[in-house]
Design brief:
The chain has seven helices and no strands. The chain is mainly alpha-helical. It folds into two domains: about 60 residues, no CATH class; about 45 residues, no CATH class. Helix 2 crosses helix 3 and helix 2 runs parallel beside helix 4. It is globular. The termini are far apart.
Length: about 110
């Protein structure tokens, strides 16, 4: 098994390259500049950066955006309900939690059929 540093070097070449790719796809505050985000991400451990990159890539490929993922979770939880409070509460969850919920709810829906 390789270390997070070895994985970063094998997949991206360097931590800076991973941060550049991650900063292009990650959601951020509207008032945060590219430089400030890159500086902040460079202080994050390699293992966390790899997890963030994998999650952001999965959300982008499967759903297009984090908001679309939250909508998909709401639909799976309560059918096609457009309950504003449930949607607002779901949007506050972390991306990892939303992905886990979507996976579990999809599996549950398949088992019910």
């Amino acid at each position: 098994m390789s270390t997070p540093l070895q994985t970063v070097k094998a997949r991206f070449g360097s931590k800076e390259e991973l941060v550049n790719k991650l900063s292009a796809i990650i959601e951020r505050d509207a008032n945060e500049s590219d430089k400030a985000l890159a500086d902040r991400l460079l202080r994050v451990p390699n293992s966390k950066l790899l997890t963030l990159f994998d999650r952001a890539t999965a959300v982008k490929e499967k759903f297009g955006s984090r908001e679309a993922l939250a909508e998909a979770v709401i639909r799976l939880r309560a059918g096609d309900s457009k309950d504003a409070t449930a949607f607002a509460a779901t949007r506050t969850l972390t991306t990892g939690r939303l992905l886990d919920m979507h996976k579990a709810l999809t599996r549950k829906a398949k088992a019910a059929k």
